[in-house]
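Q: My labmate handed me this sequence with no annotations at all. I'd like to see what the chain might look like in three dimensions before we decide whether it's worth expressing. Could you predict it?
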Amino acid sequence: MANLKIGDIVARKSYGYDIFFKVVDIKNDGKENIITLKGITYRIQADAPESDLIVQPDAKVREYTEKVNRYAEKKLRSAKLYAPRQAWPKKGFYRDTANEPTGGFKKTGKVLHIDGDEDYLETCMREYKKRNIDAYGKHIAEKEQPHYIYRLLQEYKPDILVLTGHDGVSKKETNYSNVNSYINSKYFIEAVKEARKYNPDMDGLVIFAGACQSMYDGLIKAGANFASAPYRVLIHALDPVLVSEKLAFASIDKTITPMDVINNTITGSKGIGGLQTRGKSRNGYPKEPYGS
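A: Here is what I predict for the chain of 292 residues:
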């Protein structure tokens, strides 16, 4: 395929057109154009020769997106959500009359979401808003995240930090224990380490880090509470939101198990894993009589 341009939606012939990507960069290696690709529904980044790529017509893109969205919706409906959709709380304050004292209230966890993909960040921020999660978002390229994270933590003082974007295992590498086998895992790992310099308490600052096929073990060892991807699979763009939701609404006096969080995601245990962590919602009393 010739004459690709940035923004085209393409699929790879050599992979059976399994994933649709957006073209984000074009370089020439002296022989042919090498195209940098980012998934349009999954958080994967890859490079491919231009000759392996086919531009997808709008109808095919709609069909593909709708198929992925249907699967995601099915998973969301079956997930054991902490805050049911029909009872999503007011942003930042979760009314749970079964567990709060009469005349009291709950304050839920605040999220700082750092994303290497601007489109995905906008999608996630809409989902945070829909679910009334108290969240703030910043678009920062994966390789730049370690340089900004400490200052952003000082500025926003979140309870939950999300470090995500795109990632992938290099086609030339097969050693999953080597951080250089991954496109962006080393940047996520460095960013997690910087965040732990700010707050080493894993219950004080809860961290989710990673994207598609990220180096799960390296991220956990660096200090993440939850990370992707144990089986080096693709994760859905909204998985970081769903991890954050579970943690933000769970009570501080409850220890959340990895399966509590995994069951709230689209991808499941092959894509998301982590450690026991305390929730970030707190009871308050009394509720003032002024305002809503």
